[in-house]
Amino acid sequence: MHTILVTGADGFAGEHLCGRLAARNHRVIGIGLRALLPPRGWQYTILDMLDADRLNTLVAEVRPDLVFHMAAIASTQIAERSLHHAARLNTLAVVDLMHSCAAAAPGCRVCIFSTGEVYGPNTDAAHPHTEETPFADPRNFYTATKIAQESYARILARNLGLALVIIRPFS
Questions:
Q1: Mean of the pLDDT values across residues 110-126?
Q2: Does residue 14 contact residue 8 with C-beta atoms inside 8 Å?
Q3: Which comes out higher in pLDDT, residue 89 or 127?
């Protein structure tokens, strides 16, 4: 059994991930901004990812083995309307999260959720994007924040000695 922290647990994918992990008998702690119905088999805490002090305290209490970082402004339209908030949540929150993990759970593996949009549009169906495909020039602010998030996370993982996995889902 692992202790797993899921940020953005109040989102569609986050809530489902928490349920699946709990069903596999992991200790799951989800955090998010919205009140949820009491989850089955996992804990949930309302916490703003931009509150570094509360995040540090929670990570120190939980001491996760694994973190799924899904908290983000995930809408291109909302990111464009709320540039400063999107920049802070989609990029700087990962800085605080990784520092918290390095301090309180140094063996922790961090999985951040980025986006397949970092590759730009695929105009050649015969040659789909791979992990080696270079990033495209971002077409919107949301994608730019995710490219920055990945860059920060890679630097911090290397400097803080954390294991990092970057997940780039496509929609």
A1: 78
A2: yes
A3: 89
Mean pLDDT of the chain: 89
Distances in Å between the alpha carbon of 54 and those of 1, 45, 99? 25, 11, 13
150/125 Cα distance (integer angstroms): 26
* CA nearest to 59, candidates 22, 13, 110: 110
Is the pLDDT at 123 greater than 80, yes or no? no
Q: How far apart are the first and last CA of the chain?
A: 31
Is the pLDDT at 73 greater than 90? The verdict is no
Instruction: Give the Cα separation of 49 and 38 in Å (integer).
Output: 20
Reduced to 3 states (helix: H, G, I; strand: E, B; else coil), residue 38 is: coil
Residue 17 is classified by DSSP as H
Asked if residue 64 lies in contact with residue 105, where contact means CB atoms within 8 angstroms, the answer is yes
Q: Is 69 helix (H, G, I), strand (E, B) or coil?
A: strand
Count other C-beta atoms under 10 Å from residue 144's C-beta: 20
